[in-house]
C-alpha cells in the first residue's frame, strides 16, 4: 500500500500542459516569459482538470498594481450546479511585486503587451506562462516563415549527405 502512495505522489508532482497559445508566437515576438499563479474558483479548477480551456483572445492587464487575466474562457463545470462560475470572468494573476513593477514600466512605455502562452498544472497548482510580447508586422512574419523553410531545407540536405544519398 505504501508503494502505491509514493507512485501517485511522484506522478502528481510533474507538469501537465492543459492549453497552449500557438498563435501568440506567430503574431508576437516574445521578449520575456514569467510563470505566475492563477486565482481560481473550485469549479474552475475542476473544469481545467477536464482539459476544457481556451486561450484565444486572452490578454493580461495591470490595474492598480495587480495583474489580471481577461477573456480566458474556462467553460462551466459539467457536474457543477448553482456554484458554477461565469466562463469569461476576469482572473487575478499572482506575481512578485518586483515583477509587476518591471512589467508595468515596460507595458506603459512601449508597444508591448502581456499574452498568456501556456496553462499547465505544476505540483497540483494551476500555473500560467505569461509572455511580454511585441507585435510583429506582416513582413516579420514572412521573414520567419522564410527562415524556417531554409532551416528545414538545410537540415534535410545534411541528413541526405550523412546517409550518402545524392539527389
UniProtKB/TrEMBL annotation:
GO terms for MF: DNA binding; RNA binding
Key words, A-Z: Cytoplasm, DNA-binding, RNA-binding
GO cellular component term of the entry, any: cytosol
Major location (coarse): cytoplasm
Gene Ontology process terms (BP): trans-translation; trans-translation-dependent protein tagging
Superkingdom, natural source: Bacteria
Matches recorded under InterPro entries: SmpB (IPR023620), SsrA-bd_prot (IPR000037), SsrA-bd_prot_CS (IPR020081)
UniProt cross-references to PROSITE patterns, sorted A to Z: SSRP
Cellular compartments annotated: Cytoplasm
Pfam families noted in UniProt: SmpB
Stretches of the chain forming a coiled coil according to its record: none
Role, per record: Required for rescue of stalled ribosomes mediated by trans-translation. Binds to transfer-messenger RNA (tmRNA), required for stable association of tmRNA with ribosomes. tmRNA and SmpB together mimic tRNA shape, replacing the anticodon stem-loop with SmpB. tmRNA is encoded by the ssrA gene; the 2 termini fold to resemble tRNA(Ala) and it encodes a 'tag peptide', a short internal open reading frame. During trans-translation Ala-aminoacylated tmRNA acts like a tRNA, entering the A-site of stalled ribosomes, displacing the stalled mRNA.
PANTHER family, alphabetized: SSRA-BINDING PROTEIN (PTHR30308:SF2), TMRNA-BINDING COMPONENT OF TRANS-TRANSLATION TAGGING COMPLEX (PTHR30308)
Assigned protein family: Belongs to the SmpB family.
Protein name as catalogued: SsrA-binding protein
Organism encoding this protein: Corynebacterium flavescens
